[in-house]
Amino acid sequence: MLFGTWVFSALYAAMPGSWNDAPPLLHVLVHFNLGAENVIAAWFSSMLLLLVAGASMTAFAVDATSRHSRTLLHAGWVVLAVLFLGLSLDELGSLHERASTITRGPDEVVVGWYALMALLWSVLLFMAAFGLLHARRVRAAPILMVAGVLCFASIPFQEKIEIFAYRAAGAGWQRSHGWLLLEEGTELAGSLFFLASALTYATAMLAKRSEAGGVLVLRLPLVRSLLAACILLALGGAGMIASRQLFGSTPVANGHGMPVNWFPAALAFAAAAFALCAERARGLPAARSVVVMQLVASAFAGANLYGWQFIAAPSLFLRVVLTAALTVGVGMAGMQLFRRVQGVPNRLGIVAWAVLLLWGMVSLKSSLVAPLLYASSSALLLVLLSDAAATPEELTASGRDNSGGMEASPPAVEPAAHS
Q: Is the full-model pTM beyond 0.90?
């Protein structure tokens, strides 16, 4: 992505004329530009932050079952997950850019920017304190977390330097490729440091548990899991509707991102991750075609590909080819899942997923894309959860109650394939 950013900026700087006269190659290369909005690079950065949120919840799940970690501090992983979930939404929705322009009073004081800086430093101080106070149980985890904090803390200073350079140069100022790569690279590095910190912590704590003769068993009671999933999906759907009402469903002239696109993109990405992990946890080969189609759907929504001219209004031949390719991909994935799941409701859910996914990606009406893709990923997630969750009878038969939650069990109690 950084290489793509450098290539695009160099070619764009040398391009004569306006963006409307740019060759088709630049319209493709801009999707690898981390400095742009509504492109694949922005989707990539957003999903990386979403992965950090997932890794933080993984660390919390490991901590929550440890007798030595059942303190108030381990809830900090949940706070981190919520923060990175918000950062992921901001990356696609440009929320902080909008907030930073809020002014008040006759002198037009930029109160939004000051509030944003206060929030940023509060969050960074919390991250550093949590890493030093709690994550120090694993030596590398706080070091990685503090490195991530330093990366994020340096970004406002980099932006200030650029602002001073702009004011000094006047109308002839052009943003340096080096400063652009440094800022975007620092942001990616910060995300990767936090991802590595959470995964290192969870892995090390699981290794300690294994040495002590125990494994971590995650129990998914059917009714409670489906109820919790439906509540979360309903909240996400409400957020998508609210973001459409507040910010609209079309790109704005100043190039801000579209918050409405984050909800189907994040849910499609989460469903892909769940499909990958659920199969491997049961010792089965992953349904790769399903994962691929979900990632394509996530990028399609998150990068606003349905709104780009070379996709939204191609020649008839190109549209037929794209539709045929998507139909084949969705059909193969649907058949693979259809054979694996059990029960009529689950199989009907797979059919609904395939129909909604294909409809959302070939629909000529852009306002339908986000809700259709959100509904398709919701159907897939519910089917996968229903297929993976244990019924009360299965939990009772395996020697565990159906109260939900997680527990640590000795290796002899739980077969290795289900641990």
A: no
